[in-house]
Amino acid sequence: MSDDKAGFVLQAVGFDELKGWKDDDPSSLFEVMEACRSQITGTKPYRTGSLGLSTDDLLPLLDAARNAKPASASDARSFFEQNCRPFFIRKLDGSRGFVTAFYEPEIAVSDKLDSTYRFPFYRRPDDLIDLDNSNRPVGLDSSYAFGRLRDGEISAYPDRQAIDQGFLDGRGLEITWAKSKIDVFFVHVQGAARLRYPDGRTARITYTAKAGHPFSAIGKLLVDRGEIDRANISMQSIRAWLAAHPEQVDDVLWHNRSYIFFREAPVAASKAGPVAAAKVPLVAGRSLAVDRLIHTFGFPFFIRSESLTHLDKGRPFQRLMLALDTGSAIVGPARGDIFTGSGDEAGELAGTVRNDADFAILIPNAAAGRFGR
């Protein structure tokens, strides 16, 4: 099946053509598949991406997984082999797919503003509204999913610079305060955080909306300016540069006009990942953020990158994952963001992932016939 307009084709293959498949153990996916099934049937189906795969296509796989009791990695792989057909995602320009990674930071915060804790995380403002083709103002780019409603008029919401300079002051939207605006910025990039309060309490915030402006990578800005070599760009190198150039922090951070708003979320279990766009907890190393305009949440993807070795102790990354999240920078049919977990160690793992990768989507048997199998 091809989609020339979208610039990619689906190539039907056998599981024996998925290099690394026989070395993977996807047993940990069954619990989160059940969580997806509960979300779809009990709350709301996931939006269908342009590829055309719907939650109705996915449900037979999720229903079958309820009764599967894999006792081994081989059993788990056999389940997917019996219930799905794999398709490589091939881009028409011949380029490979690409993966980065994200994590859930842990950050020290206070529920009181003082001279140390000065930089807020905000709840969604009441004048921020969802936009679609029915209410988007003429002249506002179609990428804007949010805008500002004021006196009956809709416009673009103020950007990161305006908000940092006090646009939301006095409205009581602060959830909590952090010590560093750089820490706040990187929580915005990750979309979630675990919070540690001085009295030992822990909490969690997660994405709820954004101001609407496009995401602009500050790493690319620093590369284009010649501040960091392209071969060395990573979250760690960006943080180091910002720490060494405090007088330029605002200028660089404001380059990314996108601004994220959060909601408070429970910490259900100390090892549970954050609840992201698919409304189920993320599983470290098994959850993938994808372009939701193309793909539908809950579908399995087998990702292999021979150059990505530090996540698996020197071995190539080759794992079956579920599409459970999305992000402003995750654009394209073979573009993914790997969730590495929570905390500083997960951040060290995530910060240097920038690797070419092969993408295969596993389509449940009944739907696979529409795509050539």
Automatic annotation (TrEMBL):
Residues 106-263 form the Lytic transglycosylase MltA domain. The keyword Cell wall biogenesis/degradation applies. GO terms for biological process: cell wall organization; peptidoglycan catabolic process; peptidoglycan turnover. GO terms for molecular function: hydrolase activity, hydrolyzing O-glycosyl compounds; peptidoglycan lytic transglycosylase activity. It holds the Pfam family MltA. Keywords: Cell wall biogenesis/degradation, Lyase. It comes from the Bacteria. Its EC number is 4.2.2.n1. It is an enzyme of class 4 (lyase). It catalyses: Exolytic cleavage of the (1->4)-beta-glycosidic linkage between N-acetylmuramic acid (MurNAc) and N-acetylglucosamine (GlcNAc) residues in peptidoglycan, from either the reducing or the non-reducing ends of the peptidoglycan chains, with concomitant formation of a 1,6-anhydrobond in the MurNAc residue. This is peptidoglycan lytic exotransglycosylase. It comes from Rhizobium gallicum.
